[in-house]
Amino acid sequence: MTNTAGIFSIEITGFMTPEILEKTGRVFEICVSDMVPTHLCEITPSYAMDFLRYETENHLSDDDYEDIMGWQDEDSYIHVSSAMKLKHETEILTDDYTFEDFREYHQGNHTFEAF
User: Fold this and answer.
1) Taking every pair of C-alpha atoms in the chain, what is the biggest distance, in angstroms?
2) Are strands 4-11 and 87-92 parallel, antiparallel or unpaired?
3) Which residue of 1, 25, 48, 50 shows the fewest CB atoms closer than 10 Å?
4) Distance from first CA to last CA of the chain, Å, rounded?
5) Single pTM value for the model
6) How would you class 88 by CB atoms within 10 Å of its CB: exposed for 0-12, middle for 13-18, buried for 19 or more?
7) Can you tell me the distance from the alpha carbon of 44 to that of 105, in angstroms, rounded to the nearest whole number?
């Protein structure tokens, strides 16, 4: 079995207040996953999503970003079937390129864009 990691763009605009949306426009969480299906309290498999950062439609200053977006940076789970419908990219993992390497690379290099 080949180990694969993915980076995903999850739109969360609908969870934002109108005041936040005035500054941000559309809002996305960028998350990575080791893409190992897990079963929570249901039969449908899910992927664990490790939060990396937010991306917003409108550019925010560093201060605005911290004020507005710094409140929610928790990991989450999403059904596999739903995850595969999101904008995403995958990479093959090896002994020399682990999931931790993948996550670290994408934390420091914003090469994946939400839009």
Assistant:
1) 47
2) antiparallel
3) 1
4) 31
5) 0.85
6) middle
7) 30
